[in-house]
Hints:
With 241 residues, the chain is an alpha/beta fold. The chain contains seven helices and eleven strands. A hairpin with a 2-residue loop joins strand 1 (5-16) and strand 2. Helix 3 packs across helix 4 (126-138). The longest helix has 18 residues, at 156-173. The protein starts with a strand and ends in a 7-residue tail after the last strand. Adenosine-5'-triphosphate (ATP) is lined by residues 16, 21, 39, 41-47, 74. The site of magnesium ion has 4 residues, from helix 1. Belongs to the ABC transporter superfamily.
Amino acid sequence: MANDIAVVVRDLNYLIGEKYILKNINFSIKKGDFVGIVGPNGAGKSTLIKILIGEIDNYTGEVMIKGKIGYLPQFQTFNREVPINAYQFVKMGSYKNKKNVKLIEKLIEEVGLSGKEKQLVGTMSGGEIQRLSLARALISEPDILILDEPEAGVDQMGKARFYELLEEFQKRLNLTIIMVSHDIGMVFEKCTTVMCLNKTLHCHGPTEKIKPDELKLLFPDFDLWIRSKNHYEREHEHGDI
Ligand SMILES: Nc1ncnc2c1ncn2[C@@H]1O[C@H](COP(=O)(O)OP(=O)(O)OP(=O)(O)O)[C@@H](O)[C@H]1O
Ligand SMILES: [Mg+2]
């Protein structure tokens, strides 16, 4: 595996019963890439992520990962009744029992929540909890950050802020980021590489080389998306925000 490569997947197949969930998947990801994985519901995106993080291991093929992984799962729900504060929430991401007070405080500050260390997580907004989850995933100082639909349930402003943070971390720490997203606009604006998945890999390459026709095949409502200045935006009806 070359030095500048973070992930290699070769001839990956995954079946449940007799049904292919993932078929003949081949790709590699360079260190420092910000990869956006797009595809319709049921395409196998979360399954691929679970294979990368080692949660699913009964696949065939080769999966090679260089470096430590930090992971933000899909559908994380925080029970707002749980009486923990922001500091404790971030600390939970650390497997080491050593005191890393400084790192926790630094991360809370970097995700824009300094001064809120003692605030109960249950009293924070969805966007704040999501940024706190990002801090928690970064506490183990990963080389590769994997996120599954991190924008779900967060408003447009919160989303934009979150993507900016990801881009900042990616550039500053030379972090490799692999992110599943349904927000094609954000993916085309922020990601360096796009992967279109629907059981097989339909396309994979630098963002600027992905052709609209390839996406059209995957998304029946693709006509609602317009391409401008190298990024996609959902077309809005008048009066719609
Ligand atoms: N435990 C399971 N048992 C049976 N089928 C499963 C299981 N987990 C996933 N599947 C099937 O595998 C396929 C891929 O699911 P997966 O969750 O990876 O899709 P996805 O691309 O993440 O979808 P979404 O965009 O809705 O999150 C689906 O057809 C799903 O029904
Ligand atoms: Mg999924």
